[in-house]
Amino acid sequence: MKQWLFILFFSFSSGYIQAQVGINTTTPNPNAVLDVHSAFAGGGYGGFMPPKVTLAQRNSIVTTAADDGLLVYVSFPSGNRCLQLFNGATLVWEDLKCFDGPPSVTQLRIFGDYVNNQPQYTFSSGDILYRNINLENFTTGSTSGVCSGAVNRVQYSSIILHLISSSTSQIVVHGTSSGTGRTLTNIETSTTLNGTYTSVPGFTSTSTINSAACGIITISNISIPANTFIRFTFSGNINLSGFDIISP
User: Fold this and answer.
1) pTM, full prediction
2) 152-185: per-residue pLDDT in tens?
3) Most Cβ neighbours (<10 Å): which of 64, 117, 148, 243?
4) What is the C-alpha separation between 177 and 210, in angstroms, rounded?
5) How far apart are CA 10 and CA 24, in angstroms?
6) Rounded to 5 degrees, what angle do the CA atoms 118, 122, 127 make?
């Protein structure tokens, strides 16, 4: 392998030559300037590793139209990684394939006390909680039965969340209950608060919320875009402390 790397380096550093270069092969394709085979002479297989750069390093590359086709593998601060190709016609790096980083989690917790009996509660993320489509006021919040870092809670068997800030593939409901075995019976979505709500197909929910012990209900197998109204229906009243919104 080292011998072939030396030959490759020598070929590119010795000026123009009319020849093909083969790595792990003595018979490179006659139409290829560089022909890389995956099989090692001593056994086993390998692959092609493109140049790896961070976003800042990629941005430091001074590119022109002459760099059309330049290939790099970029790591973004978000954790996403993309194989990118430079388009010399538009002078833009374009994604060939991207891999997501770890999912982001937005914690929505109830801190308001509803002393003014408002029809909605706005989380710090901008997402909004409604009691129902009729814009009935929340009753005064309570500090009894809160959990998961919340300060207050609301107690209902159905609640509406206007998810504004992000899309989600999983939702975790946090709370306690005044009874045992509280479960999610339905999750529905609508594009407007008082519009038609449609059940989310194929969703799954695990766990139950039982009495005073802080519990969670995890809702999975969903794909809900941002700016969606989500109605949760439970098998009985729960003391809702908040949600975890998990984005892909």
Assistant:
1) 0.63
2) 999 999 999 999 988 999 999 999 987 788 999 9
3) 243
4) 6
5) 16
6) 140
